[in-house]
User: Which sequence fits this backbone?
């Protein structure tokens, strides 16, 4: 009989420790139960039911995406090479984090159209 109690206690302990998740201060999380949004995970200790719930982490720090260097021709027919960076940050509120997960598949790939976009720069004569 004691073996049965010990086995049940071990199974419960394994399920408990398998569900422990730590959300870092630079991240926010979304917890889904059976694939449906159930709650917002703030930084700190979070516990989920393994197999039934999933935790999706979102980085909310400022991030940079490099655009490819482009050779442009100015209005006075000079060649210039332009390099650009795009900085983005996901807000820390629940709605912004939900939108970044459910409405955008990959934030970095959504910014990739900026990499191939032609930059329009007009040159003005120097005084």
Assistant:
């Amino acid at each position: 009989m004691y073996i049965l109690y010990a086995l049940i206690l071990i199974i419960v302990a394994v399920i408990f420790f398998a569900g422990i998740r730590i959300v870092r201060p630079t991240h926010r999380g979304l917890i889904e139960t059976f694939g449906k949004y159930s709650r917002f995970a703030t930084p700190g200790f979070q516990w989920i039911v393994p197999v039934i719930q999933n935790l999706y982490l979102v980085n909310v720090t400022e991030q940079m995406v490099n655009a490819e260097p482009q050779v442009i021709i100015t209005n006075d027919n000079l060649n210039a090479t332009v390099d650009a960076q795009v900085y983005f940050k996901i807000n820390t509120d629940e709605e912004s984090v939900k939108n970044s997960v459910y409405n955008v598949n990959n934030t970095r790939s959504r910014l990739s159209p900026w990499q191939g976009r032609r930059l329009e720069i007009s040159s003005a004569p120097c005084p």
Notes: The two ends are 95 Å apart (CA to CA).
